[in-house]
Every structure is written in structure tokens, then in C-alpha cells.
Amino acid sequence: MSRRVLLFGALGAGAVLFAGLLIVPVMFGASRFMFGGGVAGGNCVNVAQAGAQPAAATGARAIPANYLELYKDAGEKFGIPWNVLAGIGKVETNHGTSTLPGVRSGENYAGAGGPMQFLAATWKAFAVDGNKDGRKNRYDPADAIPSAAAYLKHNGAPRRMRTAIFQYNHSWDYVNLVLDWAKRYVGGDFEVVQTNGVECEDNDLPVNASDLVKRIIAFAMAQRGKPYVFGANGPDAWDCSSLIQAAYRTVGLNIPRTTFQQWPFGKKIKKGEEQPGDLVFFDSGPGTSANNPGHVGMVISDGKMIVASCSSCVPAIGVKPYKRSDWVGVTRPLARPDLRKKAGELAAG
Fold first, then answer.
1. Category of 306 on φ-ψ map: left (φ > 0), alpha (ψ -120 to 50) or beta
2. Which end of the chain is more exposed for a tag (fewer CB within 10 A), N or C?
3. 98-120 pLDDT, tens per residue?
4. What is the pLDDT of residues 177-236, one digit of tens each?
5. pLDDT exceeding 90 applies to what percent of the chain?
6. CA distances (Å), 158 to each of 55, 204, 327, 348, in order?
7. 178 or 19: whose pLDDT is higher?
8. How far apart are CA 302 and CA 321, in angstroms?
């Protein structure tokens, strides 16, 4: 992993909401819209084929047969292009054939071991029992290769493949070398997916939502690509609750500023009955609990929310799943009588 950094390295807030927020930068058409926000030109990345398994070419004949099979099996299971795993295996240990220390036993100078060169701590966190023999052996390619796939997956692959490979070994020279080999194994016509946080698959507005809810969601979605800054109120950066407040305010509806205030504000909704525009709350952050959630996102479809996650998250603001272990509950601000009345007045106007 990162023990080769030296080697490859040598080779190479708070502002007042603008009145302009009341104008939503959205173009409707067959429920598609273009995004502004922090994403230059409103471009999105198609990730539909990010995990596709390309056909092996002549160059793959140089890979030992057992390794080739393991790369393909792990690629299919974890949704990682098998040739990327093969590229890592080639660069790290020449598919386990290297005679250097730490390949078949022991560790190298940086503490890495096995055909995919795992540090002990990383192995402990991400090891997979690939051959189901009850052991996780970093020197066994049947375990090491799927473990590498799991580690890439954890770091954003296949949607952010270059980022994930960089986390495997913190050098862009390393990333390029791995991908050069990955191309050779499939005949050269291969490009990995690297999203900017805006995926084309997430650009559809909910079909059955009202125009008002679509406008609320559209504003929040248009902020993708901008940074998360705790306490920020936009327009250049947001935190989780300020993004939600601004999205509602852009259609003329006022809700509280903080997550702690937003939780008791809306009507509580049973899990499984949430709708687009509802708020989903999480037991995360300091001073929070199941009765006092400290993080919030907005439902855009079944299982998906638009959320400002954290300053180190990738993306910081983006579409993510909300059905997770720290999910506390759901509220519906638009079910409040005062907001329902206001929404009706806005619609009539």
C-alpha cells in the first residue's frame, strides 16, 4: 500500500443567503436538468459501465492462469474491472512471481506482505476469506486479490477509480503505471471512470413529486461539487442543515437552520413511507443520540438522499444512500399545517 510512497514520489463561512437563491438554475425537460453549482459547466459522469468486466486480450496471456481467474472472479464479485486488479498485481509483485522479500512470506522494508502487498493494519481492516477456508492469509492470492478489490471498493472504486488506486499507493505515477498495465491486458481500449460527484444516473427528478418538491430538490442537487464547511450558509459552501434550509427557502418556505432544530420541526414519518423532499436524520456527530440526531439529508428517491456530508468526504455534497446503520428517522416539513398553507398560497400565486 502506502509504504511505496517514497519510491514513486521520487519518480515523479457564514454569509447571508443571496436574493438570487430564489432563482433555481434548472432546466426541465423529460425530467432531466443541467446542474450549475460547483461543477463546471454542469457536466455529469456516466457511471453505468464503471464496473464492467472487459474481455481479456493477448496481453493477458502473460498473467499466470490461476491469478487471471482470481482477478476475474474478484472483479465480478466486487464490481471492479478485473484488469485494474491485474494491473496492481503486476506492479506490486509481478503476479506473485517476484522473489523480493515480503511476497511469499515475511514483509518488505515498509512492512508490506503478500502478492498484493498489504500492510498488516490494512489487511486486518479489509481482509477477505476468498477461498472460504476459514483463514485470511495475505500471502494466499485467493484471499489477497479479493481483499484488494474490497479495499478499492472502500476507497470509491469503480466510480472514482483513480482516487481508489491512489489510496492503494499514494503516488500518481503508481496510478498511471497500474492503468497502463490494465490497458495492455484488454488491448489498450480501456478508460476508468472518475466522477466529480455528479453522476448522470442521479439527475432524474422524482416523477411523482410535486413541482414544488422538484424545485426544492433541484436547488439542493445543483450544489453538488461545492465544499462542506461546518457553519457555512452558502452560496459557495454548505453544511448539512444549511443546505436543507436553503433548498426550502428557495421556494419561499422557511424551516429552522440547524439539524437539532429541524428534527422536531417536521411531522415524523415511519421508515419506509418517506417521500422525495422528506428529511432523513442520523445519529452522527458530537453530542448526538437517537433522540437528538446531528446529521440530516433530503430524500430524492427510494434509498437515496442529497446530503452535505463532511469536509473530507468525496464528494462533500452529493447523492448517497440513507438506509444505513445510524439512520434515526424521517420527518416531513411539508406536512406541517403552516407550511402546507404557505405552499398552497405559493402554488396559487
1. beta
2. C
3. 999 999 999 999 999 999 999 99
4. 999 999 999 999 899 998 866 777 777 778 789 999 999 999 999 999 899 999 999 999
5. 75
6. 17, 21, 25, 46
7. 178
8. 9
Phi, psi of 299 (to 5 degrees): -65, 130
Residues 78, 153 contacting (CB under 8 angstroms): yes
Residue 112 contacts residue 1 (beta carbons within 8 Å): yes
Q: Residue 262: is its pLDDT beyond 60?
A: yes
How far apart, in Å, are the Cα atoms of 64 and each of 97, 105, 138, 148, 214?
A: 9, 19, 18, 18, 53
Higher model confidence: residue 286 or residue 64? 64
Strands 295-301 and 279-282: antiparallel
How far apart CA 243 and CA 228 sit, in angstroms, is: 10
CA–CA distance, 246 with 242 (Å, rounded to integer):
6
Domains and CATH numbers, the chain: 46-185 (1.10.530.10), 206-348 (3.90.1720.10)
Q: Which amino acid is at 2?
A: S
Q: Which of 316, 331, 337, 345 is nearest to 236 (CA)?
A: 316
Q: What pLDDT shows up at residue 36?
A: 36
Question: Region 84-110: what's the mean pLDDT?
Answer: 97
Cell, residue 187: 488491448
